[in-house]
Amino acid sequence: MDSSEQAEVHGVRKVQPLRRLYDWVLHWAETPYGPWALFILAFCESSFFPIPPDVLLIALAISIAKKSFRYALICSVGSVLGGCFGYFIGYEFFEHVGKPIIHLYGVGDKFELVSQQYQNNAFVAVAIAGFTPIPYKVFTIAAGACSVNFLTFVIASAISRSARFFIIAALIYLFGGRIKNFIDRYFNVISIAFVVLLIGGFAIIKLLR
Question: Over the stretch 3-38, which tens digit does the pLDDT of each residue have?
Fold first, then answer.
């Protein structure tokens, strides 16, 4: 077996556990415990869990489209509360818990970038956190480590995370399961548009003061 084949096998082995975890998360959509699983997943993902709650939210919303907004609310509440837990980790236990989590996911450079953004404008940094490719747990742990104002953190988190999940719910409610591929392909574009509007609105509010 040459080096390229060895690298490919190593890559497959590395991905397989994550894929099994992903499938395990999705299987909850087929059980009566789906909403509870969604809440717990959203909570855990905000501080340490690798799989984003979007995957289960989409599966549940597609299965019962009329409950899409209910699932989005459950996901939002779980995510914000989980974010508070991530903040607590960063604030009280960064060296012993927060830093190992950051290193586990190999996002130390992202952590430094987010920390710098908090120095510039904490509200905007948290508000756009739900729409960036950077794992949300990086923002929550960094917020605590940087001692960001807790109320500012909670308000911005509620706006950001709720907007993310309710956009997904609205698309599925309006268009059903056929919108899934569109969400997978274009959600980043939708997210960028929302961030631009959010920052623009924030800038206008500051100018009107």
Answer: 443 333 344 344 567 678 778 888 888 888 999 999
Type of residue found at 95: E
Two tokens, residue 83 = 């974010």
Nearest CA-CA partner of 37 in 65, 15, 60, 18: 60
Of 83, 90, 91, 205, the C-alpha closest to 154 is: 83
pLDDT recorded at residue 82: 96
With both helix axes pointing from N to C terminus, report the angle between 54-63 and 68-92 in degrees, rounded to the nearest 10: 160
- 106 — phi, psi (to 5°)? 65, 40
| Angle value at C-alpha 84, between 203 and 144, nearest 5 degrees | 75
Report the C-alpha gap between 157 and 93 in whole angstroms: 21
Ordered alpha helix ranges (H), the chain: 3-27, 34-45, 54-63, 68-92, 99-104, 108-120, 122-127, 136-145, 150-175, 180-208
Q: Tokens 């009566």 appear where?
A: 32
pTM of the model: 0.78
What string of DSSP letters covers 6-18? HHHHHHHHHHHHH
Q: Two tokens at 49?
A: 């869990």
